[in-house]
User: Fold these one by one.
Assistant:
Number 1:
Amino acid sequence: MCPIITDHRPQTFDAVIGNKELVSVLQSMAERERQHPGKISKTLLFHGKSGCGKTTLARLFAKEVGCSDCNIIEVDVSDNRGIDAVREIKRGARYKPIIGGEKKAYILDEFQGATGDAMAAMLKVLEEPPSHVFFLLCTTAPEKLLETIRNRCKKLKVKPLSDNQMAKLIERIAEKEDVKISSDFLREIISSADGCPRQALDIIDTIRDMDHKEAKKAISDFSISAPLEIIDLCRAMIKGEKWSVVRKLLDKIKDVDIENIRRQVFGYLTSAMKNSDSPSRQMVVAADAFRDNFFNNGKGALILAAYEAVKL
Ligand SMILES: Nc1ncnc2c1ncn2[C@@H]1O[C@H](COP(=O)(O)OP(=O)(O)OP(=O)(O)O)[C@@H](O)[C@H]1O
Ligand SMILES: [Mg+2]
């Protein structure tokens, strides 16, 4: 992750921009926990778009209820999806911390990535966590969680920022980072970031050393919010790269939801057409290869479409 994103992670609830109602819910829960320990829900589910502050708010809450940094354990569930990871978490949760106070919080990031078995194995501990433990689940796709898990959690929606809140965030960061942002660019960044603080920070970091023209193009590229490996694939196809290059890029794409990837590729390529005065034939051929639904054809459909995009 680029330093600008970690450097500006809010360290207190006061520094959080937007989501004020949610912040005040979290603050009053923490206050209750301090007054009457054990009375609040210990299993929270933060959900909302990627980069909108779920992990940030979960960490702040953990601190506010008395967990010191060394007792806030972050697990990226998309990398630790299975039953072994759950066992590890359950084992660790049994013991009170040795240093830094009595309480412990597990931030389970990207929880939708857990396998069905792993989710089922978490059920009981989520229902009745040990008294010294908080489980803070974060997800961009709450519908992918077992319903029984969702029902056990206090659900907290983290919303994207409004345009005004975004302007405040961009101005604050630009000032701290000593980056000049014209009012035109401010408007464009707000539009491209689409309410997502991480995206705004990423844009500021990307354009800081660019000239005006390059920066303008880079900001509009961000409006197509696709993961980097998908953008790389699209760029290679637009260039009409050799198949040997394209197939390496395909290897980097995780095939969790192929139809979703198709939609992102199609969206990127057609936006690139819209942003260009005269789209190249190669661009149109590539977009055309991604036009039809992949249904349940799995990664094979993606490979075939990418081949058609550069070979036909
Ligand atoms: N409300 C906010 N005010 C200021 N900065 C914020 C806010 N929310 C997020 N940020 C910035 O955006 C970055 C990303 O936020 P965070 O990691 O909490 O998002 P997330 O919702 O957990 O994303 P993901 O779904 O990808 O895990 C933070 O490091 C911080 O710099
Ligand atoms: Mg997160």
Note: Residues 54-55, 109, 138 surround magnesium ion (ligand 2) (CB under 6 Å).
Number 2:
Amino acid sequence: MQEQWLAGSRGCGGQGKIGTLRFYTLGIDADALETIEGAISFAEYQSGTICEDCGKKGKLRSNMPWWRTLCDPCLTKWKKENKIK
Ligand SMILES: [Zn+2]
């Protein structure tokens, strides 16, 4: 996408060039943002499915004072240790 914009700028006049350059800069930001957003959602996905204690398949438990991702045995253990019913 960015390369296409650059290629287009070569055939344009001064005005077009400025416009293309502006879009090109925006293009970098949007791509960087997309990468960051992708990394965040991947981390959220990971942290939302893997038990924090044993690394097995778990679930995000949001119905507690702290949000934790735990599998069933670790949740039971953690609740006992922290006296959460
Ligand atoms: Zn676990």
Note: The beta strands are 59-61, 68-70.
